[in-house]
């Protein structure tokens, strides 16, 4: 959806903001890191909304720095950042971010700009950025308002864990049914739901998004969750470990409505090529199961070995291919894979058509490799689609 944005800022304000672009390029991440640190210290209740793992590993400050830089660069016409704003707004709606949160963010962002840059900014710059932030916030609030209106439900709805199935050494599926016995919404294959987790002995509510891993139209929603590793300093697996170890069949969890702008384009009849790495197969499995009887679909999945390959029995079509980086002896005995090593362009050219819509998801390294291969092959940008798990990044 194209969003037209007419700036209400006067020319002087826009010129001041644009003049800060080089400074943001150099100091943006320092500003956003300081912003999060101070805000979450002084307003600890906001930790109920933020993924603290992404704070500690730097992904969230980096993503925000990129967003602020983009907004400043395009302050004359924020229509240029509307596509990125749409993606962020989907996540905000899943997290139940509301208009009243934006003034808090603005307050601490302006403080961070002033405190990090010090004498390099004066009151005129801060005043200009206050006005610019208000315009940027209004853009997000407007987009999110439309998404809330279109959402199947607002906030969180209680779901019962109907079934819990171990899919591999790392991945477990959870089948969710509404506790109220009501109907389920349809959704677009590739979208996600949010889980609100109140974990015993952990002080803050955790909110995570997990891709729906089955086709729409069932009497359940299914997510397939990888148990993430982590350390005491960066507990990457806090929610996934809770789901694997503590959540059992019959338990009730709050779920946000399906959301997300990575989904199957059903308006074209081109063949579909699905490229997944690791647990990145989950949104693509939903696409595969929805469209395999309707269009020509190729599904390529890359994993370390068969032991960690979840949902493998559901990759049952003739045009599915498995690539194991280091196949086990059992994998070799069973001939359970089509290629050892990695998915590369030379091999890809031989198994899938070029005139297709390509969708890929997985670890960042896998995604960079796929993006590079597809562009080297000359696949048009409009036929290349991908999903990041976590804060939006760039390839």
From TrEMBL:
Domain Globin intervals: 8-145
Function in brief: Is involved in NO detoxification in an aerobic process, termed nitric oxide dioxygenase (NOD) reaction that utilizes O(2) and NAD(P)H to convert NO to nitrate, which protects the bacterium from various noxious nitrogen compounds. Therefore, plays a central role in the inducible response to nitrosative stress.
InterPro entries: Cbr1-like_FAD-bd_dom, FAD-bd_FR_type, Flavoprot_Pyr_Nucl_cyt_Rdtase, FNR_nucleotide-bd, Globin, Globin-like_sf, Globin/Proto, Hmp
Limits of the FAD-binding FR-type domain: 154-265
Protein name, UniProt field: Flavohemoprotein
Region (Reductase): 153-395
PROSITE patterns: FAD_FR, GLOBIN
GO molecular function: FAD binding; heme binding; metal ion binding; nitric oxide dioxygenase NAD(P)H activity; oxygen binding; oxygen carrier activity
Gene (UniProt): hmp
Family of the protein in this entry: Belongs to the globin family. Two-domain flavohemoproteins subfamily.
Required cofactor(s): FAD; heme b
PANTHER family cross-referenced by the UniProt entry: FLAVOHEMOPROTEIN
Statement: the UniProt record of this protein carries the keyword Repressor: no
Gene3D superfamilies: Globins, Nucleotide-binding domain of ferredoxin-NADP reductase (FNR) module, Translation factors
